[in-house]
Amino acid sequence: MLLTAEGVVMRTSGLTEEQLAADEYDQWAVSKALELIGEGAWKLSKPFKAAHPEVPWDRLGAMRHLLVHDYAKVNWRIVYDTLKLRVPELIVALRPLVPPLPGDAES
């Protein structure tokens, strides 16, 4: 989840709302990243999620559900706001929960 969130933020740093609304490839890429984040949240145990209420687990799942099951109803303004505002907040919330990978500079 963290790597996907960091990756989509990095790769869309210059993306405007208008570009997202107009480009199907960008829509697909952002949608897929948000789906993966939501899927990862869904797979976590209930006790883990309960221990970390600072992460909006239910909202992550709701976004995934919308993108997967109600794709025709997607509001790209909401997706864009999620990408630019909520995903960076998610990264901050997830970082303390993820142990460093072997070889990371911090380890």
TrEMBL record:
The keyword Plastid does not apply. Keywords: Hydrolase, Nuclease, Nucleotide-binding, Phosphoprotein, Toxin-antitoxin system. One of its GO terms (molecular function) is RNA nuclease activity. The keyword Hydrolase applies. This is Uncharacterized protein with HEPN domain. GO terms for cellular component: toxin-antitoxin complex.
